[in-house]
Amino acid sequence: MPLADTKLHDPAAAADPTTKDRILLAAEELFAAEGFEKVSLRAITQAADVNLASVNYHFGSKDALIDAIIENIVTPINRERIERLDALESELDPDKTLPTRDILDAFLRPLVIVIKESDLSEQMFFRLMGRCMAEPDYRMPESVVPQFQNVVQRFSTAAARSLPTLPPDLIVWRLYFTIGTLLQSLMHIEALNTFSGGKAGEPSLDDLLTRIIDYCIGGFEAPVSNSK
Amino acid sequence: MPLADTKLHDPAAAADPTTKDRILLAAEELFAAEGFEKVSLRAITQAADVNLASVNYHFGSKDALIDAIIENIVTPINRERIERLDALESELDPDKTLPTRDILDAFLRPLVIVIKESDLSEQMFFRLMGRCMAEPDYRMPESVVPQFQNVVQRFSTAAARSLPTLPPDLIVWRLYFTIGTLLQSLMHIEALNTFSGGKAGEPSLDDLLTRIIDYCIGGFEAPVSNSK
DNA sequence: TTCTGATTCAAACGTATGTTTCAAACAACC
DNA sequence: GGTTGTTTGAAACATACGTTTGAATCAGAA
Questions:
Q1: pLDDT at B3
Q2: What pLDDT, on a 0 to 100 scale, did the predictor assign at position A85?
Q3: I need a labelling partner for A207 at 20 to 30 A (CA). Which of A157, B59, B175, B198 fits?
Q4: Which residues 36-55 of chain A have a CB within 8 Å of chain B?
Q5: Chain B residues inside the 8 Å CB shell of A205
Q6: Are A197 and B153 in contact (CB under 8 A)?
Q7: Do residues A181 and A212 make contact, with C-beta atoms less than 8 angstroms apart?
Q8: Its pTM surpasses 0.70
């Protein structure tokens, strides 16, 4: 039994990585750079310096490899989200509610933490995350669906308690808008500078997260339009 | 010379569509449903009931077909955005500024209008739009880059005038967050109901746009965190 | 050492893709 | 009506893919 991991996610942790880990690492980088569909097993195994057949031997198929990678990334993020929300709620005065900022921070920051601990560049990492949501034929691995259901349930009830004037279904939508803001924004940083002519500058990842949280707090707490 | 189009975007407008239009229509639907990479020219030409070679004859290559489709969708949206902003600014009292809601409405609503006029289902359409931003190997066609630059420039200056307390680069970022909120949200409506256990309901497209605009107004006008 | 199960390896298989070819069909003009 | 340029058609081309195969190699227990 190995020592407890201090990192949330790191397939290259071992000093002498196994074939399986070499595949995972190389595949993460390539998938992030070019997408699940476009990267061939030959490209992966060549980058990992392993035999072509080893992917099918260790994972069964390319699809199963993709599932394993998604699971490896998403699971620690969701675990960290729940832990942070647990911590916030356990320290909370029972007759008070959590500030929106704390809820959103607990929701968004684990993503940034995993990036910093990963061996992927920021851009690569977010592209990979974004693909988990946007890939053409994407179906989420069964194993992570209950995770996400739990996360959505916990955070939306926490937000509903803090923002009792908002209808519950709107809470879910706004949580969803928040995910979109984070993922889409971070996926296309370079595109933004293309369109803005460099006006957007290049804020650090922490500055960017602050800007995103500010924006999402405003969106979350926004008054409900009286239309409809 | 044909009559002026009343629709912003409609490749199937002709009563007896040409081979080129048949290809465009079928390709739009298939790309939206399954992604640029996954849809083969054989699938497209079969759906369009044209010969396989006609894609390369009329468009030159599959990539050129993709570019043409993106251009067909994006151009009328950006034109409508600029026209709406022009109208708002021409009616504006010179010593007043535009409400954030009006700016965001002019920015976001053209997307929804194009959906309604398109022959694609809402979901299909947004998937196609989302792919324009998220596809693995995606490179924007050169022809639409200046369009987007113009849109970003116009809308960010309008927003900067209305929100003079915000630093200009933050304006650009918040405009970008807004795009992300719209695209990502509308791309994954069904995923949301998977995770929320149906709590999100199924609002109409107009209700959804209202919710998005509410959220984005809040985000746009949110106070700037004093961190950093 | 010898045997056994797990892993690696080079090669091949079957299939699907984008593209090209070139003859046939068509349309428009003198 | 015949000619010319454009468009369609069926077939083939070259390539790339995920997967499978079966022998070779390795590691560890008997």
A1: 31
A2: 98
A3: A157
A4: 36-38
A5: none
A6: yes
A7: yes
A8: yes
